[in-house]
Amino acid sequence: SPQALVRARFQRWWEARLPLADTLTLTQRNVYILPTGAGWMLAFTLLVLLVASINYQLNLGYLLTFLLAGSAVAGMHLCHATLRGLTLRLKAPDPHFLGGRTAFDVQLFSDRNTPRHGIALSVHGHGTQHDWAVTDVPAQGSASVQVAFRPARRGLHRVPTLMAETRFPLGTFRVWTYWRPAAQVLVYPAPEVPPPPLPPG
Fold first, then answer.
1. Structural domain containing residue 117
2. What percent of the chain has pLDDT over 70?
């Protein structure tokens, strides 16, 4: 469809703008945030509560509205801070045979004094289904996750663009980033099954 074509072209243009790097430190410049569906529903609920409280002069309604709104704002800042300041490092992938899943390790480093929870990584732009790898990063520590993709043909392939995201703690906001690694992976031809017999002699 024309919409899918425009979306694919925009995605290719956007990914081409990303710098190639096997190590990425997340800052305010490369971390994005938007409300989730649950977040928009919470905003609508807060609006209804506020209108009802104003209309009926309900002091407890005001209290509930502002408590929920304050929790949502605090969750927004905490969600953004979960990714901001995190360092991602790609371990060089090993060669693989065609037809199998090409897996590679990503290490996450945090110098923060508090742990980071619910961080998910996936290959971006390969259909609508994302095979997420989820981990927590301890305070001033590191964690490792394994992400995989399936090359369509043999040869030397660049590692595809990766996406990291979190919805911690309330699920009302989605914070994400895109990462374009510079590493490449070598894909060998698939071995013949069953293998041919050895030559005589």
1. 2-37+80-188
2. 97
